[in-house]
Amino acid sequence: MFSVKNRLKGKLLFSLLALSSLLCATDLKMATTTSTGDTGLLDVLVPQYKADTGVDLKWVAVGTGNALKLGENCDVSVVFVHAPKSELEYVEKGFGVNRTPVMYNDFVIIGNPELKAKFAGKSISEVFKTIETEQIKFVSRGDKSGTHSKEKNVWNAAVGHVPEKQPWYLESGQGMIATINIADEQKGVTLTDRGTYIKYEANHKGKPPLVIVYEGDKNLKNLYSVMAVNPKRCANADYKGALKFIEWITTDKVQTEIANFKLMDKQLFTPDFKTRP
């Protein structure tokens, strides 16, 4: 039989252990875009963050619109996304703070190889006009992601509207890899970030059904930024943890890790913390 004194000691020890667990919480919740997840970049960075800080980074990869919504709803403490206009609006509304550049790549159009000649020498606006005029099947993300936002911007700049009601314009409502697969099934084209395309290419051992049929326009740069959820709006946000992650991902060490992340010897992202205005 335990004495009352021993029982009290046991309860005190349990309470101290529980308090210690709460004070030393080691999880940081992050919402991010599908491209950081699909490419495998986070599979490299997350274990490194744990090793460097002792913190478990718990992340969910969704479209940028949904990632920002998770921050707005106080479900995460940090967001890592790629839709500058939406990000700036998010900050203006007071949902996000400490927006910081991390890296970039670019958007490309992929489709059947024979389309290369059709799009050669054109601007991105001229390419989208050609898609509309010739009613080439275009598969949109349709999910409020950063890529979907770019699609809409290009359509509006090219033809003054987004042709959502046209039979050749399809919306997947899914992530990038799934959208690429639908474009392949439909013998159409889609807009994707280069990093996810390289991952798709690697999945097909360098011989993918769809290839890059247009690239290089100055308007197709794809900028990624990270920001903390505003603790003034979300009392449960781990603001200190978010700042720690932002500081970590912009260190020279991690920026070099991002630059060195390659598939098939191709660089997926270029770090730009120090070079972006």
TrEMBL record:
GO terms of molecular function: ABC-type tungstate transporter activity
Pfam families for the chain: PBP_like_2
Ranges that cross the membrane: none
UniProtKB keywords: Signal
Keyword Signal: yes
Domain PBP as annotated: residue spans: 29-252
InterPro entries, A to Z: ABC-Tungstate_binding, PBP_domain, TupA
Signal peptide bounds: 1-25
SUPFAM superfamilies assigned: Periplasmic binding protein-like II (SSF53850)
Keyword Coiled coil: no
Matching Gene3D superfamilies: Periplasmic binding protein-like II
Protein name listed in UniProt: ABC-type tungstate transport system, periplasmic binding protein
Species, as recorded: Sulfurospirillum multivorans (strain DM 12446 / JCM 15788 / NBRC 109480)
